[in-house]
Specification:
Elements: E1 8-12, H1 20-33, H2 47-64, E2 65-66, E3 74-75, E4 78-86, E5 89-98, H3 103-106, H4 116-124, H5 127-132, H6 142-145, H7 157-170, H8 175-192, E6 196-198, E7 204-206, H9 211-221, H10 225-233, E8 234-239, E9 242-247, H11 253-280, E10 292-298, H12 310-340, H13 354-361, H14 367-375, H15 382-391
Parallel strand pairs: 1-10
Antiparallel strand pairs: 2-3, 4-5, 4-10, 6-7, 8-9
Length: about 400
């Protein structure tokens, strides 16, 4: 980095449960301990930066990790930790996250859980706080019980919540901040209970039997029940720069409700990340993109479920691309050098996944391009997409 004056990065990849997150922590610890501290650091102890990142990881894992069939603590988001440098001296750290698996908020497979934070609050918050938010037990809520697994061997939700609270306090989350976060999280669970009933006009309406959950969610979020009900039962679209609001069809009600839940959870996650970065590194009037760094990328683990979400597909595709990069740069390119230099060796057969990668990401006929085009059609349907994909 110092010699070339260019940022450098390290990549931790592998299947789910291989130890990528722990490997990333060890790499960060090594870099922090072997780098001199820059001016303005509050301490000369390199463990200070390591401990900051470890404490931040506890928070991020509460919002971004979940139990899957392969791993009880699987990271369902990508994390890129930057160690910031100036003239070879470490200044602090910065975190970037991406591709949070939002679909997990509203659906889980057999023997899987939603994100840890939902279960932590049931065991960690006081009885009075839970009663005020009308939270009984996880199995009462649709968003938490679909996997048939609300507790996990080896994970003490109450203890984990205690560790989480310590980390949140270290990053100066106030009592008001935490109250707002818990209210938002509880509100998402109550919205998940708002089932649909068709009205006399053939449009979707919130089931009167779920009115109590609608009112609770609205109260927790500080909005009126009527406003929330309107958002659940209508959708807006832009036509010729004009916004048109229309009633939601019964078949689209759950999708509309779940989209709200996913967006709210993602924004709460991004809020937490923003607050963490504000404590990890003080930019002042600078631009983080112009600062030299050594990055450590903790990528998602490859998993294959009975039903794979689009996020999981993207995760698996990313791992496939990385594997192709590894195969060429570590094996194939080296063998080419051996041939040029007439070195005697036993040739290795290098797997080539370039056809698969091309099938997915070709700019015109790839799966992503065709899916994007299908979604923009006047009447998009999975059948038309599949037909077009296999025709290409």
């Amino acid at each position: 980095m110092v010699a070339r004056k260019k940022p450098q990065s390290l990549l931790c990849c592998g299947i789910s449960g291989a130890g990528k997150s722990e490997c990333a922590k060890q790499l960060i610890r090594y870099l922090a301990k072997t780098s001199p501290m820059g001016e303005g650091m509050v301490t000369e102890d390199p463990e200070f930066i390591v401990n900051q990142i470890v404490q931040a990881s506890i928070i991020l894992e509460a919002w971004g990790n979940a139990k899957t069939t392969l791993n009880n603590n699987s990271s369902r988001f990508g994390k890129f930790v930057k160690l910031m440098y100036k003239e070879g001296k470490i200044l602090g750290s910065w975190m970037e996250t991406y591709l949070l698996e939002k679909s997990r908020v509203i659906a889980q497979g057999p023997q899987e859980r939603n994100y840890h934070i939902f279960y932590f609050i049931f065991k960690g918050l006081s009885g009075g706080a839970l009663e005020a938010m009308s939270l009984g037990k996880p199995s009462d809520f649709w968003y938490l019980k679909q996997g048939g697994c609300t507790e996990v061997d080896g994970i003490d939700d109450k203890k984990e919540f205690g560790d989480l609270m310590e980390s949140l306090k270290l990053f100066r989350f106030s009592d008001d901040d935490l109250s707002s976060i818990w209210n938002l999280t509880a509100g998402i669970l109550h919205v998940g209970q708002c089932s649909m009933k068709e009205d006399d006009s053939g449009n979707a309406q919130c089931d009167p039997a779920a009115k109590i959950n609608l009112d609770l969610a609205a109260e927790l979020w500080g909005i009126s029940s009527d406003s929330l009900n309107e958002r659940l039962t209508t959708a807006s679209m832009e036509v010729m720069k004009k916004t048109i609001i229309k009633k939601v069809a019964p078949a689209k009600y759950n999708d509309n409700r779940d989209a709200i839940s996913k967006a709210l959870f993602e924004n709460s996650f991004l809020f937490v990340v923003e607050r963490i970065n504000g404590e990890l590194f003080h930019l002042g009037s600078g631009d983080v993109k112009k600062i030299m760094f050594i990055g450590v990328l903790d990528i998602f683990g490859f998993e294959n479920f009975i039903t794979n979400s689009i996020e999981q597909f993207c995760i698996n595709f990313t791992n496939e691309k990385i594997q192709g990069y590894f195969n060429y740069n570590i094996i194939a390119s080296e063998q080419e050098e051996y041939i040029k230099e007439s070195v005697l060796w036993k040739p290795m057969k290098v797997p080539d996944n370039s056809d698969f990668v091309e099938m997915i990401e070709h700019k015109k006929n790839g799966m992503f391009a065709l899916l994007d085009s299908a979604c923009k059609a006047p009447k998009p349907s999975p059948e038309n997409f599949v037909k077009e994909f296999f025709k290409k």
